[in-house]
Amino acid sequence: MQRPIPNLRAIVAMDPAGTVGSCGRLPWHLPEDLRLFRSLTIGHTIIVGRRTFDSIGGSLPGRDCWLLTRRELPAEFQNSVRIFPDLNSLLLSIPTVPVERQFWVIGGVEVYRQLTPYCAEIIQTALRKRHIGDTRWQMPNDFSRCEILLRREEFITYRWRRNDIAEVGAVPL
Ligand SMILES: NC(=O)c1ccc[n+]([C@@H]2O[C@H](COP(=O)([O-])OP(=O)(O)OC[C@H]3O[C@@H](n4cnc5c(N)ncnc54)[C@H](OP(=O)(O)O)[C@@H]3O)[C@@H](O)[C@H]2O)c1
C-alpha cells in the first residue's frame, strides 16, 4: 500500500461477482446511482482511463477531466481534458491543485488497480443481482465499510475507508 492521498477517492458500481463492465459499457442502467455519481463528482476532478473515456463519449460537464492514455487524443478533446501519459506524472500533479478539490477515480479496471492503493476512500455501489459482463474488479482488502449512503431495491451504496487512516472528512452529498 502507498501513502493515501486524502482528497483522492474512487467510485465504482459492481455486481456480487465483481462484474463492472460488458463490451466496454456498464452492464446496467441505474438512474439513482448515476445521480449519486453526478452529485459526488460535480465541481471536482475525475480521473479516467482511455477506454472508459471512450465509452462515456468524452469528458463530463461540470467536472475537470484527467485522462490516462499513451495515445494522441483527437483534437476535439484536447482542450477539455488534461492528458497524462503515465501514472507518475498524474500523481505528481495532484498536490499542485488546492486540497479542497476532490479527485474521483472513475475507472475503468486498469485505472482502479493502479490508483486505489493511493485512495483514502472508495464509494462502492453493490448491486444485489448478478449481471453478464466481461470486466471484473474486486474491492481491495485494506478498506473497511464505514457508512451506507443509499439503500435501494437493486443496490446498496457504501463508503469504504482505508484501514490505516482516520476520517478524512465527509463527502459532499
Ligand atoms: N462499473 C463501474 O463503476 C465502471 C466504471 C468505469 C468503467 N467501467 C467499465 O470498465 C471497462 C473499461 O475498463 P478497462 O480496464 O478496460 O479500461 P480503462 O481503465 O478505462 O482504460 C484503460 C486505458 O487507460 C490508459 N491507461 C491506463 N493506465 C495508464 C497509465 N499508467 N499510463 C497511461 N495510460 C494508461 C490506456 O489507454 P491507451 O490504450 O489509450 O494508452 C489503457 O488502455 C468498461 O467496460 C467500462 O464500462 C465500469
Walk me through the structure.
The protein is of the alpha/beta class and 173 residues long. The protein has a single domain (5-162), classed as 3-Layer(aba) Sandwich (Dihydrofolate Reductase, subunit A), CATH 3.40.430.10. It contains four helices and ten strands. It has helices spanning 31-41, 50-56, 87-93, 109-115, and strands at 5-14, 19-21, 45-49, 64-68, 82-84, 103-105, 119-127, 135-136, 143-151, 155-162. It has an eight-stranded mixed β-sheet. Strand 3 (45-49), helix 2 (50-56) and strand 4 (64-68) form a beta-alpha-beta unit. The radius of gyration is 15 Å and the shape is globular. The two termini are 28 Å apart. The relative contact order is 0.27. The model has no long low-confidence stretch (mean pLDDT 94). The structure holds NADP nicotinamide-adenine-dinucleotide phosphate. Residues 12-14, 20-21, 24-26, 49-52, 55, 68-71, 85-87, 106-111, 114, 135 line the site of NADP nicotinamide-adenine-dinucleotide phosphate.
Q: Can you summarize the main beta sheet? A: 8 strands, mixed
Helix count, per DSSP?
Answer: 4
What is the CATH superfamily label? Dihydrofolate Reductase, subunit A
Mean pLDDT: 94
CATH class category name: Alpha Beta
> Could you give the order of the helices and strands?
EEHEHEEHEHEEEE
Report the span from N to C terminus. 28 Å
Q: Shape, please?
A: globular
What's the number of structural domains? 1
